[in-house]
Design a protein that fits this description.
- One of its GO terms (cellular component) is cell outer membrane.
- It holds the Pfam family LolB.
- It is a lipid-anchor.
- With about 210 residues, the protein is α+β, with helices and mostly antiparallel strands.
- The chain has a single domain (about 1-15, about 30-165, about 185-210), classed as outer membrane lipoprotein receptor (LolB), chain A.
- It has five helices and eleven strands; from the N terminus they run ααββββββαααβββββ.
- It has helices at about 1-5, 30-45, 120-130, 135-140, 150, and strands at about 55-65, 70-80, 80-90, 95-100, 105-110, 115-120, 155-160, 165-170, 175-180, 190-200, 200-210.
- An eleven-stranded antiparallel β-sheet has the order 6-5-4-3-2-1-11-10-9-8-7.
- The chain is globular and about 55 Å long.
Length: about 210
């Protein structure tokens, strides 16, 4: 992953550029909150359990931490409480794989001295690669639903005129959403562009494919 981390910021995918500020229009907050609860229920996320249910996505990702940046392909899959995350840089042909078990135990492959293990996936990635990736919460945030408030703190969700989330703020992270499209299987609306940021840390994604149960 150090090879991926070493890619210059100028090579970040143009498709992963920062989202432009949306044109804000009046929103019926009560209607938006109701629609979001219904959507979270349909996704199996009504309780904020980011490891449930099974789902997958694939796309492009750009990472930066204020000092270095990199970009590549991302594949994310969850099932039976576990998470499988693979990042790869086609140009350098470098990749790493993170597997997180249902009990939170994380294993990282594709780095020096692999496999590396830790009980905290985010800490393992941060200490090994330099990237701050909120793995535990991303299972919810990628699907535009707030994570469990008891674990990640209270969340503020702002909506667009179509009553879909345009921003979630939680745990010092701000996550913006744009270009919603229906998942081909469930037909639920899912974001095609996502940007998560905290301080100088950025995770930008362009989703090419969703797969929801």
């Amino acid at each position: 992953m150090r090879a991926l981390a070493g890619v210059a910021l100028t090579t970040l995918l143009s498709g992963c550029a920062s989202l432009a500020p949306p044109l804000l229009r009046p929103v019926d907050q009560a209607a938006a909150d109701f629609a979001q609860r219904e959507r979270a229920q349909a996704l199996g996320l009504a309780e904020g359990d980011c490891a449930a249910p099974g789902w997958a996505m694939a796309g492009r990702v750009a990472l930066s931490n204020g000092r270095q940046g990199g970009s590549g392909r991302i594949e994310w899959a969850q099932g039976a409480g576990g998470t499988h995350l693979q990042l790869s840089a086609p140009v350098t042909r470098q990749s790493w794989v993170l597997d997180v078990a249902a009990d939170g135990a994380a294993t990282l492959q594709g780095v020096a001295d692999a496999p590396l293990r830790d009980g905290d996936a985010a800490r393992l990635l941060r200490e090994t690669t330099g990237w701050d990736i909120p793995v535990s919460a991303l299972g919810c945030w990628l699907r535009a639903v707030a994570a469990d408030a008891g674990r990640f703190g209270p969340a503020q969700t702002d909506y667009a005129a179509d009553l879909l989330p345009r921003r979630i703020e939680q745990g010092d992270w701000t996550i913006d959403y744009a270009d919603w499209q229906p998942d081909p299987f469930s037909r639920l609306p899912m974001p095609a562009r996502i940007e998560a940021r905290r301080g100088s840390n950025r995770v930008r994604l362009v989703i090419d494919r969703w797969g929801l149960e």
